[in-house]
Amino acid sequence: MTTTRIEESLAVLKEIAVAAGLSAAQAEPIRLAENDLWRLPGGVVVRIARVGQESAAAREVAVARWLAENEVPAVRPLPMNQPVEAGGRTATFWELLPPHRHGSEADLAPLLRQLHDLPKPEFPLGRLDPFVRIAERLKSALSVEEDDRQWLLRRLSDLQTEWNDLPAGRPECVIHGDAWAGNCAVIEKPNRLALLLDFERTSVGPPEWDLTSTAVAYDTFGKLSQEEYRRYCELYGYDVMRWPGYPILCGIRELRLTTFALQTADQNPRALSQARYRVECVRGRHGSRPWAWEAVA
Fold first, then answer.
1. Cis check: omega of the bond before 79, within 30 degrees of 0
2. If I label 108, which of 180, 192, 211, 274 is the partner at 20 to 30 A Cα–Cα?
C-alpha cells in the first residue's frame, strides 16, 4: 500500500512528539509544504523543517526569542529546549495563534521598520544569500527548454556580478528575508494586533531586500494598486523603487520566482503554463511590467 504525504508526515510527527515529551494524539495538519505544520491539543504548533535544516530551525527560535526581548510583535516559540530532532527531521514548537487572518502590506510595513531599526543580536545570523537554490533549480528543471535554461543561467551570472557591486543604500541590518504580506498575521480581537511570522530566512543584509518583495508585488505582479503601494512606502518611510539598486534586486526576485515556478511545474503539470509565461516575461517577450503573474503551488 502506498504511503500518503500526510501519513509520512504524521509518522515523523509522532516520533518528534515522543522526543519532546508531548502527545501527537488528535494532531491536525495545518499545512504540509516545504515545512510541515501541525496543530497539537493544548495550543501547540509543531513546525517540521526540511531535511538538512537543523541550523535554520535553531536560528528561527533564536530570532523569535530575540524579537520577544525587543518587544517586536511576532509569533512566539514555546519555552522549552528546542529544536528537537527525531525521525531524521528537526522540529520547532510555537504558540498557537488565536483566530487571525493574513496581514496586508500596510500591516507589514511598520513591523519591518521595527525589525530593521533593531541593533544586531549577539548570536550569529549569517549573511543574506539571495541566490540560494537558483542554480540548482535551473540545472535540474525538466520543464524548461534548453535554450531558456542557458539564457537563465547567463542571467543569473549577470545578476551575481551586479549584486557584488550594489549602489550604496540604507545601512545593513537584520532583515526578515521573506517579507511578503503572507508572513504577517493580524489578530482582530480583543485588540487588533499584527505579528511577524516565519524567520527561516532571517539574516543580515540590505533592508532593501525586504522592501523589494512588496515593490515586486506592485511592479511585476500588478497585485497592488498605486495607492496601496504608496501607503506601504509611507508607513515604512522609504520607497525602494527610487533607489538605483532596485532593478538589480527586482531582477533577482523575478529570477527566484521563475525558477520556483519551474521547480513546481516538474511536480505539478498545472503550473507549467505559468512557469513558461514567467520565462517569456523575464526574457522580454511580453512587454513592460506589470506582467500579472499568478501564484503556483
1. no
2. 274
User: Over the stretch 204-263, which tens digit does the pLDDT of each residue have?
Assistant: 999 999 999 999 999 999 999 999 999 999 999 999 999 999 999 999 999 999 999 999
Across the strands, what pairs with 83? Answer: none
pTM of the model: 0.92
Domain match, 146 and 268 both: yes
**In which residue are the cell numbers 522549552 written?**
80
d(CA 190, CA 176): 27
**Which residue, chain included where needed, has cell 503572507?**
182
**Residue 275 domain boundaries:** 125-175+206-282
| Identity of residue 296 | V
Q: Which of 179, 182, 188 is nearest to 210 (CA)?
A: 179
| Residue 13: CATH number of its domain | 3.30.200.20
Contacts 24+ apart (CB under 8 A), 225-231: 228/104, 228/105, 228/106, 229/105, 231/105, 231/106
Give the span between the Cα atoms of 91 and 16, in whole angstroms.
Answer: 7
Distance CA 40, CA 43 (A): 6
Count structural domains, the chain: 2
Backbone angles phi, psi at 114, to 5 degrees: -60, -45
Phi, psi dihedrals of residue 225, rounded to the nearest 5°: -80, 165
Q: How confident is the model over 81-136, as pLDDT tens digits? A: 999 999 889 999 999 999 999 999 999 999 999 999 999 999 999 999 999 999 99
Instruction: Identify which of 54, 48, 43, 57 has the alpha carbon closest to the alpha carbon of residue 10.
Output: 48
Tell whether 43 and 142 lie within a shared domain. Answer: no
